[in-house]
Design a protein that fits this description.
Elements (H helix, E strand, L loop, with lengths): L2 E8 L4 E4 L2 E2 L4 H11 L3 E5 H5 L11 E5 L11 E3 L1 H10 L3 E4 L3 H7 L3 E9 L8 E2 L9 E6 L3 E3 L2 E10 L2
Parallel strand pairs: 1-7, 1-8, 4-5, 4-7, 5-6
Antiparallel strand pairs: 2-3, 2-9, 8-12, 10-12, 11-12
The structure holds NADP nicotinamide-adenine-dinucleotide phosphate.
The site of NADP nicotinamide-adenine-dinucleotide phosphate has 28 residues, from strand 1, strand 2, strand 3, strand 4 and helix 2.
Length: 165
Amino acid sequence: MAEMTAIAAVDRRWGIGRDGGLLLSLPPDLRRFKALTLGHTVVMGRRTFQSLPGGHGLPGRRNLVLTRTPGCPLPGAEAVSLSTLLALCAREDGEIFVIGGQSVYELLLPHCRAARITRIEADLGPADVFFPDLDSAPDWRLVSRTETERCEGAAFYYADYERIR
Ligand SMILES: NC(=O)c1ccc[n+]([C@@H]2O[C@H](COP(=O)([O-])OP(=O)(O)OC[C@H]3O[C@@H](n4cnc5c(N)ncnc54)[C@H](OP(=O)(O)O)[C@@H]3O)[C@@H](O)[C@H]2O)c1
């Protein structure tokens, strides 16, 4: 059975994006995202897919896109429904990364065992999409975090959470 892990970059208020894009792109975070997900399956919502650079799936990964829109063009990716995705998880091994956005985090977090969160210690302006606040969630706990680093004026650290029930 494959395990699902959520991965996201959030600001101080757990904001993840605005106007269909990210709040901030931090090069070290993008490199870490690539290193963690390369060779694995990633699953995302159709809007996040459409925000990817180049308008196609992430190279070196199997890209699954949740959509209810039949025939939606998804170059470099496969359309899936929730039931197809859960069947695939039950049948396959390895790790599947849930890469956003808000609607897909909310949908799939109950199926995730872990969450790898980049915590950007800033309010990056008003977000219109959010990751669920895991610090207030009774079924999640923080298991580790790194020291705070700085890049392009932003302070950030990596936090690993685990679902406890
Ligand atoms: N900071 C981060 O780490 C991060 C990561 C990823 C994304 N983001 C940001 O998040 C925002 C996008 O998030 P979002 O919530 O607006 O959109 P989203 O979750 O990326 O995509 C929403 C779409 O996914 C499909 N979908 C959702 N639930 C489904 C289900 N149960 N079954 C089938 N299809 C389903 C629907 O597609 P159809 O309409 O085609 O049916 C829906 O419109 C952007 O601003 C993006 O930049 C941030």
